[in-house]
Amino acid sequence: MGWLLSCRQAYVEGIDVLYRTNTIHMSGQALILNLPQLLPPQRLSAITSLEIVCPLTLHGAEVGPIPEVGLLKDYLSVLASNLPSLTRLYLALKAKGSNARPVGMQSVFEVLDEFVLKTSLKEFTVSHSHTVFTPLYNAVRNEIAAQHRHQYKTIPEIWRNADGSYILPIWGPNTEPFYKQVETSWPKPPRVGYRTVGADVNISRVTVAITASGD
After folding, report:
1. Scanning 32, 123, 191, 199, which has its CA 20 to 30 A from the CA of 25?
2. DSSP of 121-168
3. 76 vs 122, which has greater pLDDT?
4. What Pfam families has UniProt attached to this entry (predicted)?
């Protein structure tokens, strides 16, 4: 009996460390939308670092496709309500549907802005497909260049402030991507907001993956 009790204690302590010290990857609507029913509260409260994939269905429009944000809102609501210890979030937005024309992302950014203001994340990164990120990056870069009357060499990532403005990291001998600056030399991000990158940027630190069908 003593051996069984010691094994159980080791399991309880080990599983807590597993969730608390690793980045957890989750995908699948069936999993994320039912997270409180599938994982006990003590496991959810132990998660500090998370990566999730959220599909964005695009609907056609005369000026360009518009994403449906209902599922994104549901995902973020589940996270905000059930992960009290979460400090790092990597959100991959996967566009589904025709996106030959530039995608109108304002509604998506408004949802993300509201979410980041309600949470206490230390690091929040959102990745987009190239057909979404590249036009956005070029527009921001050109706007900033016009304001400063100078074309800077920049890193292909954007910091979106929660008020809707943007910051571009300028390329230089000591330049590092935002997520590295946040972890090392920066005590906090430049302002309340989140890092926006293209889908090919790989900062994954996943060591535990939990998936479910349903997307």
Report:
1. 191
2. -SEEEEEE-HHHHHHHHHHHHHHHHHHHTS---B-SEEEEETTS-EE-
3. 76
4. DUF7730
Residue type, 163: D
Looking at residue 154, what is its pLDDT? 64
205 CB-near residues (< 8 Å, 6+ apart): 23, 49
Q: Which residue has the tokens 């800077």?
A: 152
- Token digits for 103? 């995608």
Taking each helix axis as running N to C, give the angle between helix 70-82 and helix 106-118, from 0 to 180 degrees, rounded to the nearest 10. Answer: 10
Residues in the chain: 215
* Residues 94-146: tens digit of each pLDDT: 877 655 556 678 899 999 999 999 998 989 999 988 878 888 888 887 877 77
Burial 107-126 (b: 16+ CB within 10 A, else e): ebbebbbebbeebebebbbb
